[in-house]
Design brief:
alpha/beta; about 45% helix; about 800 residues
Length: about 800
């Protein structure tokens, strides 16, 4: 048990300090953000300017613009005494030991005796920063290394000193995991800690393959990106995003700090990197780095002429065959065995990475698990170094390391001699070098994982080719989409229908969660499948009314209504993208557990359609419910907001914004830690069932009829006249307006769900034959981007 922090102060409003303050506010804390006083009448000018700049960052640092109200700005001269009343002080000033030490001395004179104090240093010694402070201060002091951007990257490295009270460490660890949504790795107080030590090594290895080898920038990024389970920014785009000056600074500081590192030479800065920084070529923030966008074309740097040239063709052998392999493990094994230039690069990089990671135990961490977690959570790798080693084969990699003259650490040699050939054992066991045996790391009791290394087996209650119903225990079932990209295919919709039948027939099951552990909750209807159905029906002279699509639409509308009014609780566990039909599926569930990072919206206009799975009906109800009274003047502002949101295919940038826009109910349970989503959803479902679940009442919806439609249609006209919308956008918007206002009705007519669902259907089906809709669908399938025609 721990006492959560309620208030915090962040010292330093630079790029990291402002973002840390923002994420603490996202988590519900009242935050003081302080910086140096300005040399002018308004002493807050420095912090105000810095925070204003931070709020303009993309992607956004706040879940909602309103959350900024939780952050109080101040300066060290006038407001330092505020620290006396906060639970947690985080220092995030310049990476200068003397500056940090001086600030800590000042902090100690002000903070309460119970406050936790931490530093966000990324490379300095945490113990050195607290040198000279009292025993009481050092007991409450530790390193808290957030990764940039703090809202989006899951890793939080905690660095205790020998003086840090274990209960303080445990408290910050629990708060970071539960309230900040972080994956916590406890690191040792060594240069660059864990993730940056390994990550910078891998980055420098990639850069040197360009500056000292014969691989192009594009080839290296191809071989260090999604193909091998890394982010699409790969090596050079990541360097540009981080900033070439930052990468140079980190490498220059790290090199002298690790005199005994066996691969220290890797951190020597290549002359090219230094030249780029000296000439102001810093990456994305300067408009050019290793890449530059020229006349809409992405070009790469010529290291001789320093010109930016069209990306040359790849010379990587038959890489297409490897890219088509369905699983990451298969791609890694095949690439490692490949004898083309692609395989040569991958083997060389992996052997260097695996040897380096192994040698960092026990220097920076005691377990392979800590290094793997740090790289997955901090650098976005799908698999950590030791997980990859297991996939490639322990013996095979060991043989190749020896053949390539890499030294093998004694603990790996001891593993080999004892006959152990995997770092990860069965279930939750991981090899521990210090003991020479496997150690169990049980799955946390408040997490549910499906199909991962540490997963608890879930009994399958029912399944088809694209969905399954699983047993979560305690009488709660989980409906899991397994279709391509988690789309609503015909099989997936049929599966959900069957799952509802199963739930209705089994009295010993009290409710159901709809969720999964894929990248997204549901990206909507399977457009390719709908397109094929439409094409087939157009070719059939006896079926020009799209009876197949109409039947599918009727089926989906009936299904979402059944979910909404079901006699047992059905809870959506939403995360990632929930678009179009996926948004409507979430909206159908009266209770939702949503990851904070949920991007939800009704985006059908982007493909020339309108929402027709109950989305417009529920948004019309939401607008009426938001109004203080049922008068047109009170309802109309909310209806105009709905009309604009859907008409512009706006996607909420977080679950908080999803609630503000009406896509998620006000009672949504906000989940900060993605690993806890299914567990939390199960607990919410169980609690609803135990309370004696009562489904929503079938209340009528007051609509604004023809007068309200005229207002919305005028808005669409203004948008077209202002060149914010095309003529076809306006045509689609007029259809939206008709549904949202209930059709040809007098103002404030009370209608039921079925009336608006019928209007959705009436306006949706004719769009299937519209050429501009077909063009939009085809463009989306080809480019994954909307077409505004």
């Amino acid at each position: 048990m721990y006492t959560p922090f309620r208030t915090a102060a962040v010292l330093g409003a630079g790029i990291m300090g402002s973002q840390i303050a923002a994420h603490l506010a996202n988590a519900g804390l009242q935050v003081h953000l302080l910086d140096m006083p300005a040399d002018r009448e308004n002493k807050n000018a420095v912090v105000e300017g810095a925070f204003k700049k931070a709020k303009q960052l993309s992607p956004p640092i706040l879940y909602s613009a309103r959350i900024a109200e939780r952050i109080t700005l101040g300066n060290y001269d006038e407001h330092f005494e505020r620290l006396a009343n906060v639970d947690w002080v985080i220092e995030a000033v310049i990476e200068n030991l003397a500056v940090k030490q001086e600030l800590m001395a000042r902090v100690e004179r002000v903070v309460s005796p119970d406050a936790v104090i931490s530093t966000n240093t990324s490379g300095l010694s945490v113990s050195a920063i607290a040198a000279g402070r009292s025993a009481s201060f050092r007991r409450r002091f530790l390193g808290t290394h957030f990764f940039n951007p703090p809202r989006y990257l899951q890793l939080l490295e905690l660095i205790p000193t020998v003086n840090t009270d274990p209960t303080i460490l445990a408290s910050v660890q629990a708060f970071g995991r539960l309230r900040l949504g972080k994956g916590i790795v406890v690191a040792k107080d060594t240069p660059n800690f864990i993730a940056n030590r390994i990550g910078v090594f891998v980055s420098m290895a990639g850069i040197k393959a360009f500056t000292e080898g014969d691989y192009t920038i594009k080839e290296i990024d191809t071989l260090t990106g999604p193909l091998v389970g890394r982010p699409k920014s790969a090596t050079f785009r990541t360097a540009d995003l981080v900033g070439l000056d930052i990468l140079l600074h980190v490498a220059e500081n790290l090199y002298p700090a690790i005199p005994h590192d066996e691969q220290r030479a890797m951190f020597q800065v290549p002359p090219l990197l230094r030249q780029l920084v000296e000439t102001g070529t810093l990456g994305a923030k300067s408009g050019q780095g290793f890449y530059k966008k020229v006349d809409g074309e992405i070009r790469s740097l010529n290291p001789i002429s320093f010109a930016y040239e069209t990306l040359p063709p790849l010379k990587l052998g038959n890489l297409a065959a490897i890219q088509k392999l369905p699983t990451l493990a298969e791609r890694l094994r095949q690439l490692y065995r490949d004898r083309s230039r692609a395989g040569d690069f991958f083997r060389h990089l992996m052997l260097a990475t695996l040897a380096y990671s192994a040698h960092r135990i026990p220097e920076i961490a005691d377990s392979p698990r800590a290094i793997d977690q740090a790289m997955r959570w901090g650098f976005g790798w799908d698999l950590g170094p030791f997980e990859i080693w297991d996939i490639l084969g322990f013996e095979s990699v060991l043989t190749d390391l020896t053949a390539a003259d890499y030294s093998v650490p004694t603990w790996v040699q001891a593993m080999h001699k004892s006959g152990i050939t995997r770092f990860y054992g069965e279930g939750d066991r991981v090899y521990e070098p210090s003991t020479g045996v496997y150690k169990a790391y049980p799955q946390p009791p408040d997490e549910i994982h499906l199909g991962s290394i540490n997963a608890q087996p879930q009994a399958t209650l029912w399944h088809n080719t694209e969905s399954a119903l699983l047993d979560l225990g305690d009488g709660i079932a989980l409906f899991e989409l397994r279709s391509k990209a988690n789309t609503l295919s015909t099989q997936a919709i049929a599966g959900l229908e069957a799952a509802m039948d199963w739930l209705a027939a089994h009295d010993d099951y009290h409710g159901m969660v709809i969720g999964n552990e894929g990248p997204n909750f549901c990206v909507g209807i399977n457009l390719a499948e709908v397109g094929k159905m439409a094409q087939f029906e157009n070719l059939n002279p006896f079926n020009r009314t799209h009876r197949g699509i109409a039947k599918l639409l009727d089926q989906f509308q009936a299904l979402v209504q059944r979910i909404h009014y079901f006699h047992k609780p059905v809870v959506a566990a939403v995360h990632g993208l929930a678009l179009g039909g996926g948004c409507e599926l979430a909206m159908a569930c009266p209770h939702v557990v949503a990851d904070a990072e949920t991007y939800i919206g009704l985006v059908e206009l982007g493909v020339g359609l309108i929402p027709a799975g109950g989305g417009l009906m529920r948004m019309a109800r939401w607008a009426a419910n938001q109004a203080l009274t049922t008068t047109p003047g009170d309802i109309l502002p909310y209806l105009k907001q709905v009309f604009t949101t859907i008409g512009m295919a706006k996607v909420a940038g977080s679950a908080v914004e999803g609630i503000e826009l009406g896509f998620l109910p006000a009672c949504t349970t906000l989940n900060m830690n993605r690993d806890r989503r299914l567990y939390v959803a199960k607990q919410v479902t169980l609690s609803l069932a135990q309370q004696g679940y009562i489904p929503p009442a079938r209340a009528p919806i007051p609509v604004l009829g023809a007068p309200g439609r005229a207002v919305l249609e005028h808005m669409a006209y203004v948008m077209e006249e202002g060149h914010f919308a095309s003529a076809y956008d306006r045509s689609l918007a007029n259809r939206l307006a008709d549904v949202l206002t209930g059709g040809d009705m007098p103002s404030l007519t009370q209608v039921d769900d079925a009336h608006l669902l019928a209007l959705e259907r009436e306006h949706f089906l004719p769009l299937i034959d519209e050429p501009k809709t077909k063009d939009r669908i085809l463009h989306m399938l080809k480019t994954k981007k909307p077409l505004r025609n």
